[in-house]
Amino acid sequence: MNDIFSKTPRSAQSGTRRPIALAALLGTLALAGCTTIGISQLQDTVSKFATATHSTATAEMAFLHSVQEIDEQTQFYQAAFAYATNKEQNFDVTGDFKSSLLTNDEIAARKALMDALTLYADKMQAISCGDDDKQLDSNSESLANNLIGLATARKIPTGSASLDRAVETAVDAVARFAIDRVRATDLRTAAAQLQPHLETIVKALQQENDTLGKTVIGNLGQIEIELRAVVAMSHQHAPDDAAGAFFAIMQSRKLLTDTNALMTYPGNTTVPVKGEIAKPINDTLSAILNGNQAIAKKGTGGLAAAATDLYERALTAKEFYQGLEKTN
After folding, report:
1. What are 270-317's pLDDT values in tens digits?
2. Mind spelling out the 3-state secondary structure of the chain?
């Protein structure tokens, strides 16, 4: 049996490629050249690493869409409060409020970073199979070529000018590694070589996530102040409009309950962490780096533990942010 960690690189051979079975449980892209019969512990662990990376990508996108939706709701509440307190003379209750915090184009740019991470994970899974053909499927290759084009055209803005060039270089390197048809790099070498690029991508995502999360929480905090003001005003008018005051208080209570739920971290802790809405996804992104580092260090023990940690964090984060999407 070949040692996956020290397999000698050789040219990709032509001919019919063997069919594969989907290893992903949560939407992992199809990979060519790896059967699931008699899968080794190493292959199983790398497969879990790839599946968890895809779950992380799903969680990241759910986080971004939640931020966008929360910001749009925040704008509505603030506009309504300004109108109710005569600070503004016009208010359209059916108005369409677009997020100024996070645009669709900015979400697309962050998706490109996550695409690079999932492509990398898929390639590593292909290498772990031990077959000569390390080629990904046509959809994955198209995605990789698209990422190379975006990086070359410098169309992956991160929100930080100092990071942009490094991120473009990292995305380009990961995408080119993913579509390499000739060099069958062993897992350990690939993990070590790509680790700096993965760190660059993860750093950019985490910085943006942290900024977005703190901004959203700050805006929600401002809404809480305004709702308390509404309650105080309702109390003042209670003798003349008791029903209206009661309605305002009950609605304020519900809104405060909803916003408090957004500020509770769903991690393995007995003490909820307030104001860290980005923490679940950022912790999971760090777990991707830990998992890849474990691959670089060789051996299945540490990798198995790292892959399991990543897998659990990814599922927790995905469930949390998808829950936010359903409630917004």
Report:
1. 333 456 789 999 999 999 999 999 999 865 568 899 999 999 999 999
2. CCCHHHCCCCCCCCCCCCCCCCCCCCCCCCECCCCCCCCCHHHHHHHHHHHHHHHHHHHHHHHHHHHHHHHHHHHHHHHHHHHHCCCCCCCCCCCCCCCCCCCHHHHHHHHHHHHHHHHHHHHHHHHHCCCCCCCECHHHHHHHHHHHHHHHCCCCCCCCHHHHHHHHHHHHHHHHHHCCCCCCCCHHHHHHHHHHHHHHHHHHHHHHHHHHHHHHHHHHHHHHHHHHHHHHHHHHCCCCCHHHHHHHHHHHHHHHHHHHHHCECCCCCCCCCECCCCHHHHHHHHHHHHHHHHHHCCCCHHHHHHHHHHHHHHHHHHHHHHHHHHHC
β-bridge partners, 264: 274
Whole-Å CA distances, 26 to 51, 138, 255: 6, 20, 33
Q: Is the pLDDT of residue 211 over 70?
A: yes
Q: pLDDT digit string (tens) for 222-233?
A: 767 666 666 666
* Residue 92 pLDDT: 78
DSSP 132: S
Structure pTM? 0.77
